[in-house]
Amino acid sequence: MSSAQTASSRAPGGGGSAAQASGAAITVSGLTKSYGDVTAVSDVSFTVQPGEIFALLGPNGAGKTTTIEILEGYRVADKGDARVLGLDPRRDGARLKPLIGVMLQQDGLYQTLRAREILALYASFFADPEDPAQLMELVGLGGAGATRFRQLSGGQKRRLALAVAIVGKPRLLFLDEPTTGMDPQARRATWDIIQTLKAHGVTVLLTTHFMDEAERLADRIAIMDGGQIIALDTPAGLTTSQSTTGTEVRLRATPGLDMAALGKLPSVRSAREETPGVYAFDTGAPRDLLVELTGWLREHAVDMTELRVGRSTLEDVFIRLTGKEMRD
Ligand code: ATP
């Protein structure tokens, strides 16, 4: 069995009475945090169940890192309450640390140490850690053990940060943008590791601005924007609950098309420009609508870059709820 597969094999302990009473791994209620005039997190509430992978999905500046860092005990909320495994992340930090793993967004690891020395150092903080050599292999750093941290590539640094997060066999893992900077192969390997940890009962709270990552990994997704949770559901729940009743036709073309005229096409039930250049049409007759739509575009010499029929994707849901693209 690999290192990560054994990650949750130790008996749970010291989780705290409140968590045991409520059964939740994480409880957040009314969390609010400002930096001067900037409200980073505004009245955020959610609960994460044990063994669940829960994703905070949102664009840069949405408030994801602030939320996760309050839960990790690195920042103090102005208002609201946060409980992690039944403990207060600030007050009970010493009891919480052995139970959680943290993968930070920035790589503040020791610059001049070699990769394997860093992991061995972190392993030494725990009574019963994973085997560092096995873990280096598992995260794909088997050949880079002797490389000094500052000479690792961006993706290798993220992999080492992941190894550091899981070396103590955490019951709960915080992953802040775990795959940012990784190549596609390393991303997929990281997803596999996260899924293996989940299969062994580890709870995971992750932040991401990658739709596919949230959709692929998460049991539930909280979409954050402007410091607030604007939707929270399973990936399938989000795309169905936010979908229209008929079939949807989506189009990318020049911004500012005549919506009044498009809305009058015979097969359109409703039409909207969700964000400049992104159009959505609800219809009961998609085949007819496609003919009418492409005819209209041709007549008005409008070029399109994308035309799609079918269910909404998470990205569509995000655009509909916020009126903006995930990465502006
Ligand atoms: P990213 O994906 O860029 O990390 P995020 O969703 O994690 O974004 P936060 O980092 O929590 O968002 O930032 C939320 C808001 O708070 C942003 O407007 C950000 O500029 C601001 N902010 C974050 N940290 C600080 C700080 N230490 N001082 C001042 N403003 C801050």
Report what the structure shows.
The protein is an alpha/beta fold. The chain folds into two domains: 20-239, Rossmann fold, CATH 3.40.50; 244-310, Alpha-Beta Plaits (2-Layer Sandwich), CATH 3.30.70. Helix content is 32%, strand content 26%. It has helices spanning 17-22, 64-72, 93-96, 115-123, 132-138, 154-166, 184-199, 211-217, 235-241, 259-263, 286-299, 314-322, and strands at 26-35, 38-48, 53-57, 79-84, 100-103, 172-176, 203-208, 220-225, 228-233, 247-253, 270-275, 278-283, 304-310. The protein has a six-stranded mixed β-sheet, with helices on both faces. A four-stranded antiparallel β-sheet has the order 11-12-10-13. A hairpin with a 2-residue loop joins strand 1 (26-35) and strand 2. It is elongated. Residues 1-21 have low confidence and may be disordered. Bound molecules: adenosine-5'-triphosphate. Adenosine-5'-triphosphate is lined by residues 35, 38, 40, 58, 60-66, 209.
List the helices and strands and how they pair.
Layout: H1 17-22, E1 26-35, E2 38-48, E3 53-57, H2 64-72, E4 79-84, H3 93-96, E5 100-103, H4 115-123, H5 132-138, H6 154-166, E6 172-176, H7 184-199, E7 203-208, H8 211-217, E8 220-225, E9 228-233, H9 235-241, E10 247-253, H10 259-263, E11 270-275, E12 278-283, H11 286-299, E13 304-310, H12 314-322
Parallel strand pairs: 3-7, 3-8, 5-6, 6-7
Antiparallel strand pairs: 1-2, 1-4, 8-9, 10-12, 10-13, 11-12
The site of adenosine-5'-triphosphate has 12 residues, from strand 2 and helix 2.
